[in-house]
Amino acid sequence: MTNGHRGLASPAFFHGAVEAAKRALRDEARTRRAAAHARSGDGAALAVRDAFLDQVPVPAGAVVAGYSPIRDELDVMPLMERLAAAHICALPVVTAPATPLVFRRWRPGDALERGQFGVASPGASAPELRPDVLLVPMLAFDRFGRRMGYGAGFYDRTLARLRSQGTVLAVGIAFAEQEVPSVPVDGHDQALDWIVTERGAFRPAGSLENSG
To answer: What ranges make up the beta strands (E) of 118-203?
Structure first.
């Protein structure tokens, strides 16, 4: 499909092509992550905890938002338990489809409630917080900081809102085997500032804005 003026493919065509590429990669990435989870066990969670604490700069007293792992996501709760000793911690709450996440205060031992999509989250009585550091789960990533999510757009919307309000450090959490050569992206996808796997932490080589 082309536009009538310059013979170029339309934005709708490019969007459709990106979405098709995402669907294909998403199916492959689910299988890849499940296999990595089965092989790594609890050891990956502890290695990610240590790599994050050793390498990712988190200001004293910062609000750090993690996530309650579902399915075969890499478990960040060992890291969150350590961070809670020196930082304010929070977990995300899904309030409605196609909306940014809300973050509520979490401390080790707090009771959690099952919310939308079966995600364990703090209850409504927990104070709402704005994170300075956001730990982001994913299906796949590349060296440019691009991430593949589940397709609902919760984290992209959330990061877009947080970045419009000020500074936030987005840290992708994944098994090393989830890395792919290139993740297809469009204008709504938000880049990561750091990526941490069981093999270490690194700053991506670029971002969505300058990676071409």
So the answer is: 120-121, 128-129, 133-136, 140-141, 147-148, 169-173, 194-197, 200-202
Per-residue pLDDT of 72-82, as tens digits, reads: 999 999 999 99
Q: How far apart are CA 129 and CA 120, in angstroms?
A: 17
Q: Which superfamily, per CATH, for 11-202? A: NagB/RpiA/CoA transferase-like (3.40.50.10420)
Total-model pTM: 0.87
How far apart are the C-alpha atoms of 203 and 144, rounded to whole Å?
Answer: 9
pLDDT digits (tens, 9 = 90+) for 105-133: 999 999 999 877 778 999 999 999 999 99
| Domains of the chain, residue spans | 11-202
